[in-house]
Structures are given as structure tokens and as C-alpha cells.
Amino acid sequence: MKIAVIPGDGIGSEITKQGKKVLRTVAHKYKFDLEYEDVLLGGSALDEKGTPLPEETIRICQNSEAVLLGAVGGPKWDHFPGNLRPEAGLLGIRKALGVFANLRPAILFPELKSASNLKDEVLGKGLDIMIVRELLGGAYFGEKNTVNIKGGQKAWDTISYSSFEIDRITRKSFEIARKRNKKLTLVDKSNVLESSKLWRKIVGKISREYSDVEVSCMYVDNAAMQLIRDPAQFDVILTENMFGDILSDEASMLTGSLGMLPSASVRGDSFGLYEPVHGSAPDIAGCNKANPIGTIMSAAMMLKYSFNRADIAENIKNAVSEVLSGGYRTPDIAVKNSKIVGTEEMGDLICKKI
Ligand code: NAD
């Protein structure tokens, strides 16, 4: 396994350290070679190289089989212009690697039911949703500008999608739904947005090729409400970039904490970029308080999607589950009587269980 590791900023280095530890542990157990190289991105790259996305980072990631990423950003770099901000590095690396589909599973570990913000009766038997977010289009990449006008300023961002961009992620989502509970919900705002109308048209057309998958459409405002009211109704949610960004953070709280959720950003081949859904959490950086499980589960997704080792991914998931069953918690998921542990110790406990 040849992977690139991007610690990034804030808690990034603390959590990717645990991800690497888990990968080393499974490499030893399952007897495969693991080679990794740390590269710079975001604020730390800006400090050292004067750019949030150094050429060297792109080259090393492109020459790897997969990338493990922590998070970027922080108040230290907030005053920089848009093209120099750490987030520009993040959007840039996703674009350079061509990873257009962001898979964000929201799974509730039964042990964490009490950490979820939802009542027991709403959570029912548990939660297993896959949010498929388009990652390279929409408002984050569309034409944008700020201009001076009489008496003030005017700013705009454009949501733009081509049929090609919608087609490729829709097919990916149907393939994923086929391997799950065969239900796909397109989340959009087609009552007001032109781009959403195109999404509906293309998803409707492609759905005829996947007649075994039940398709429905839902407006994003309703979806935000339904996720809280009755999350079990969802299997696969397909949505555009910005809606997916927001809904997946919402879904994370159903699972107990933002720190729990992994993600995989993939394209047509086995390559993938794997990262937790949360940000660099500057408020707890360097305190050994960050929950590393989102990153560790991202490493598990890497083994499943890029290296075709669903068995090892399952081993990691079971190890996480057992550690949680033992009552161990980082502060963000702690409840009464939890054994509170730090980032480092949580990583060690999971490795021990593996
Ligand atoms: P955030 O996700 O960093 O933090 C939100 C809250 O969740 C904070 O209270 C934080 O302490 C907590 N939290 C996040 N991850 C946690 C973890 N693993 N364990 C325990 N608690 C955790 O979001 P924010 O505060 O809005 O943004 C902070 C910075 O991160 C900003 O610069 C933002 O641009 C950046 N950001 C980066 C990414 C990314 O790299 N993918 C994503 C979102 C935000």
C-alpha cells in the first residue's frame, strides 16, 4: 500500500497520527507492506511554502494509491484572500485528484445511542445512511465575485452543473444503492433552482436503467427536517455539493459527534481521498482531546474502497465498537460514567482490539 498522508492544520496531525497507527497495526496483522509519506496542505503549507497547495503535494498524492487527510484551516489564516486560504488548498487537491463523489456514511454505533441528540424511539434500531455528495461542482466551484456598486458592494456565487457531472455521480449512487437497501433519495431544490431541475431530469432518466432501486425526490429544506424526524427512512441520499456539505454535518450529530464520521472521495478507479467530515477544530487543537474515530474509520474506508479489503475494514469497525462497548470515550462523546480518554489513548485502545 502506497499512501500519502496530509495531516493539515489544527487537530489534523493528532488524528492522522492515530489513522497511521491503525494502518500500521493492520499491515502487521494481515502481512502487507505499507509505505506512506506526509505532505503539506492548507495553513501549514502556506506557512512553509507560501501556498496552501504546493505542487509537490499534488505530485505525491497523484503518485499514491490513496490519500489520508486530516483537516485544514484555522483563525490564523482567516485574513488571507480566498485563493490563499487553507480551504482553497482543500478544494484544489480534490479537483486535482478528480475525486467527484464524496461518500459520507452516517452510522450510529449502538454503544453511542445515548450520545445522539435524538430520542431513543426516533433512533429505533439504529442508523445507517449513505450521503453521496457531488464534490467538484456547484457553488463552491462556480463563477464568483465581489464588485463595488453605488452605495456598497455586491457579491455572488453561481451553482452550475453540466449533465456530464450529474450523470457520473448519479450512476455511482445507483451502484452504491444496489449494494445496500436499494433506496435512493435525490435531495434538491427544484421548485426554485434551475440546476436542481437538471438534476431531477437526469436522475429520472438514469433511474430507468436501475429499476431494482426505488427512487424518490425531496426538497432540501424538507430533507433537513426529515433527517431529524425520521432518519431511518433514508438509505442513500444523492445531492449536490453545498446541500451535501450541510446535510452530512447535520447527520453527524445523529450519530453522536462530528468526530465520529468518516468520508471517502472517489472517482471511477480504485484511487480515493479519505478524510473525516469535521474540520480542524482549532478550539481543541494540541489538547489531546480530539476524537480520532472519524479518521480511523476513514482509513477503514480506504482499505475497503481502494484496496478491496472489506474484511480489514470490518475488523477496524468491530475494534472501534468493542472499545466503545468498554465505556471508553473521548470528551465529545462522553456520557455519565464514561472512561474519558485522550486522542492518543483512544488510538492505542483501538489498535489493541485489532
Ligand atoms: P470543526 O468541524 O472544525 O469544529 C466544529 C466543532 O466540532 C468544534 O467545537 C470542534 O471542537 C468539534 N470537533 C470537530 N472535530 C472534532 C473531533 N474530531 N473531536 C472532537 N470534537 C471535534 O468546524 P469549524 O469550527 O466550523 O471550523 C474550524 C476550521 O476548520 C475552519 O477553518 C474551517 O474552514 C475548517 N474546516 C475544514 C474542513 C476540512 O478540512 N475538511 C471541514 C470543515 C471546516
UniProtKB/TrEMBL annotation:
Keyword Oxidoreductase carried by entry: yes
Uppermost EC category: oxidoreductase
Cofactors named for this entry: Mn(2+); Mg(2+)
Pathway: Amino-acid biosynthesis; L-leucine biosynthesis; L-leucine from 3-methyl-2-oxobutanoate: step 3/4
SMART domains: Iso_dh
Cofactor binding note from Swiss-Prot or TrEMBL: Binds 1 Mg(2+) or Mn(2+) ion per subunit.
Binding site for substrate: 94, 104, 133, 221
Chain sites annotated for binding Mg(2+): 221, 245, 249
Alphabetical list of InterPro entries matching this protein: IsoCit/isopropylmalate_DH_CS, IsoPropMal-DH-like_dom, Isopropylmalate_DH
Residue sites binding NAD(+) per the record: 74-87, 279-291
A GO MF label: 3-isopropylmalate dehydrogenase activity
UniProt superkingdom: Bacteria
EC number: 1.1.1.85
Family: Belongs to the isocitrate and isopropylmalate dehydrogenases family. LeuB type 1 subfamily.
Function: Catalyzes the oxidation of 3-carboxy-2-hydroxy-4-methylpentanoate (3-isopropylmalate) to 3-carboxy-4-methyl-2-oxopentanoate. The product decarboxylates to 4-methyl-2 oxopentanoate.
Protein name according to UniProt: 3-isopropylmalate dehydrogenase
Organism: Clostridium lapidicellarium
The gene coding this protein: leuB
